[in-house]
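sry for the spam today, last one i promise. struct tokens for design, 115 residues
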């Protein structure tokens, strides 16, 4: 099975798009960082290092200190696909992140996003 193109995409290329999406809806970069850290277990320093190293998504998630055990509570549709039904574990983590950023941009409170 061929790898999806997003797996080899640098996280540092997509990260500013997450921030932009949030800021367009009057949310902050700090809110985006908090979501990413909640999902992956990175602290602010670790997140910054991954961005500076231009790690691809595969590496970014492989090096994540601890994927939050509450990810199974993330439900809904991203890009027309239900995140809880995605079979590829890496794609599912990427879509979880997309879903959390979507919720942030829709004005959902951080306490609700961070389940």
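last one done:
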């Amino acid at each position: 099975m061929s790898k999806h193109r997003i797996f080899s995409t640098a996280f540092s290329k997509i990260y500013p798009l997450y921030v932009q999406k949030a800021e367009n809806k009057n949310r902050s970069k700090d809110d985006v960082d908090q979501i990413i850290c909640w999902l992956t277990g990175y602290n602010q320093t670790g997140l910054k290092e991954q961005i500076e190293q231009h790690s691809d998504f595969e590496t970014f998630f492989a090096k994540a200190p601890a994927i939050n055990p509450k990810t199974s509570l993330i439900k809904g549709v991203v890009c027309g696909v239900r995140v809880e039904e995605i079979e590829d574990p890496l794609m599912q983590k990427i879509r979880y992140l997309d879903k959390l950023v979507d919720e942030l941009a829709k004005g959902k409170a951080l306490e609700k996003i961070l389940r």
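The radius of gyration is 13 Å. ok im logging off now
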